[in-house]
Design a protein that fits this description.
Elements (H helix, E strand, L loop, with lengths): L1 H22 L1 H34 L15 H25 L7 H7 L6 H16 L7 H18 L4 H20 L2 H13 L4 H20 L17 H34 L4 H18 L8 H7 L6 H21 L6 H22 L7 H16 L3 H12 L2 H21 L4 H8 L11 H5 L2 H4 L1 E2 L3 E3 L4 H7 L7 E5 L5 E6 H6 L28 H11 L3 E5 L6 E6 H19 L4
């Protein structure tokens, strides 16, 4: 009896705790702090495991980064990536046997699923990321950091039964705090959450986001320090001409970033076209990276050690071009062949090299300009990061927290804005959303479009609309549908396929002699080639209404052309306005 009472007390206490968390903004900040601390622990653990693998597989010094090694022995260069490929393939076989669903990352979870992520599957993905980076694949751990941080937050939010918008914010806290922990940069992590995961920055979200990022940063600091701290020398003051030059660098970075994302899809298609099993593709990809590492170890891993090595070095234009080409190719080959990881730090490293190359070119062409190469290095980091990852404020604050220099941060912000505008105008996607696009998704960012996808034509249409045979006469139509009985009737052929819309007033206004039948009513049908389908969303439907200048359209089956219903523009526009208003209220904390 006492056991039953204790269980009942626990259930009551849990219910009260859920109610408290759901109703209080302060309690959600406390939960966000806990999420940030857990994310910091996960970041530290994942980093130690990956670095330990580097020590074992490549025999580097204890205080050395893999990409900063002077050279890599051929056995290690080929055995390390091959071992990682085998381990990933074993995990893939296990996943297939368990029939585990495709893993959702924080961006997709927030944009399409209301913040719902599976913790167990995210742990597996994070482990795959650690294996990929630990074996030397040219990817970073930041994708795994964000994955596990977001998943922990999602699981906790679901346990507390948080509302959709609150759950999305908490997932942003988890992913953003993981990035904050990785770089020891709480502002960077907070704006990563706001720009890339949640898709908005409001007073309703600022408390939890910053609390989580700060908690994660303090956690990794207490455990020994952030793994990806970026250090930069002092930068000379920037003039207006320097700002303009950095904007030019931003446009160059946009072109390189778009080219890299296009090349990524080409490489994936090439690997798939071989028809080889995925484990063979990983082996080929790993050995390709190993071959590059024999030329320069800087292609291995995320590239943090290489960035620290190259920042103060005086490198020629040829060397910079070679390193840019090798690192980008190695990173894209890693992902295309099946290794898991992110391009966050790789984009920073390649961007820094691009900035140094740009400074060489500008100072050669305009020796009197006096453009500081370090300013270009920092701007290159930020702008290529924006082009591939997204988030101009995220990258700007990363530079600011790395240098503490507001002057150079202003120049980097101008360049990042130029990059973001150029990429959005010419390409429209970050690397994460581009990969979703290749799978058939249409999202362009982290904005919450889940409600939009749920609001489909099939849900809004009026089913079983009035129909009439297209070959029937106008007189017969009038007899079947007197004035006032209906406004629009759908014309169908013998097989029940859509043939157009017939306005009842127009049919009754047709003039013909008393001894005639008026001919086929199909002659009065409008828009026989314009229709909606039940699976398209409301925004696409409104676009179709606008293009057709119609106030009502038929809804048909894609395969058979059978008429399923009708939808009016007025009703669709009203529902869209209602849902948009509700979503905006949730973002502002009014829902």
């Amino acid at each position: 009896m006492s056991g039953v009472l204790s269980r009942r007390k626990l259930l009551v206490a849990a219910a009260r705790l859920r109610a408290f968390v759901r109703s209080s903004e302060l309690s959600q900040v406390v939960v966000a702090v806990f999420v940030g601390a857990v994310a910091g622990l996960c970041v530290t653990a994942m980093t130690l495991i990956a670095e330990g693998a580097h020590l074992v597989l490549y025999g580097i010094a204890l205080d050395q980064r893999l990409s900063a090694a002077e050279r890599i022995l051929p056995p290690s260069a080929f055995f390390g990536p091959a071992l990682g490929a085998v381990a990933l393939s074993v995990i893939e076989v296990w996943r297939n046997r368990r029939k585990l669903p495709r893993v959702v990352d924080p961006i997709e979870a927030n944009a399409l699923r209301g913040g719902r992520m599976a913790l167990g599957e995210s742990v597996v993905v994070s482990a795959q990321t650690v294996i990929s980076n630990g074996c030397g694949a040219s990817v970073g751990l930041e994708a795994g950091y964000a994955q596990i941080g977001g998943a922990v937050a999602s699981r906790l939010g679901l346990a507390f039964r948080l509302r959709r918008q609150d759950l999305r914010v908490l997932v942003g806290c988890g992913a953003g705090s993981a990035i904050a922990a990785a770089f020891g940069a709480p502002l960077t992590g907070a704006f990563y959450a706001a720009e890339l995961i949640i898709g908005s920055y409001t007073l309703a979200t600022v408390g939890p986001i910053f609390a989580a990022s700060l908690a994660a940063t303090l956690t990794v600091k207490a455990l020994g320090g952030a793994p990806y701290v970026v250090a930069a020398p002092t930068v000379a003051p920037l003039t207006i001409e320097h700002h303009l030059a950095l904007i030019g660098l931003g446009l160059v970075a946009a072109a390189l970033g778009v080219g890299a994302m296009r090349f990524a899809s080409v490489l994936e298609a090439l690997f798939a076209a071989t028809g080889a099993p995925r484990w063979v593709r990983r082996l080929v990809g790993g050995w390709t990276i190993g071959a590059m590492a024999l030329y320069t170890p800087q292609v291995l891993g995320a590239g943090h050690g290489a960035l620290g090595l190259d920042t103060p070095a005086q490198l020629t234009a040829t060397t910079l071009l070679t390193l840019i080409a090798l690192k980008l190719t190695a990173s894209l080959v890693s992902l295309a062949s099946g290794f898991r990881g992110g391009l966050f730090f790789a984009s920073l490293f390649v961007g820094a090299l691009l900035g140094k190359l740009y400074a060489v070119a500008i100072n050669f062409a305009f020796p009197g300009l006096g453009l500081d190469p370090t300013a270009c290095l920092l701007a290159g980091m930020g702008t290529l990061g924006v082009a591939i990852v997204g988030g101009p404020l995220t990258m700007t604050f990363l530079v600011l927290e790395s240098t503490g220099d507001l002057g150079v941060a202003g120049g980097v912000l101008a360049a990042c804005i130029a990059t973001g505008l150029a990429v959005r105008a010419t390409f429209g996607y970050s690397f994460a959303t581009w990969r979703l696009h290749l799978r058939g998704e249409t999202i362009r960012g982290a904005q919450d479009v889940g409600w939009l996808r749920d609001l489909t034509v099939g849900r809004l249409m009026v089913r079983s609309p009035p129909t009439f045979p297209a070959k029937g006469t106008v007189r017969a139509f009038r007899e079947a549908y007197p004035l006032g009985s209906a406004h629009v009737v759908v014309a169908v052929d013998e097989a029940g396929r859509y043939s157009g819309l017939i306005g009842v007033p127009e049919a009754h206004a047709a003039v013909f002699a008393d001894d005639e039948d008026g001919g086929p009513v199909a002659a009065l049908a409008r828009m026989p080639q314009t229709m909606l389908h039940p699976d398209i969303d409301i925004r696409s439907a409104l676009t179709t209404f606008d293009a057709a200048a119609a106030d009502m359209l038929a809804v048909t089956d894609r395969a058979s052309g059978a008429v399923l219903g009708t939808l009016s523009e007025a009703f669709a526009a009203r529902r869209y306005a209602q849902e948009t208003s509700q979503a905006a209220g949730e973002v502002l904390g009014e829902g």
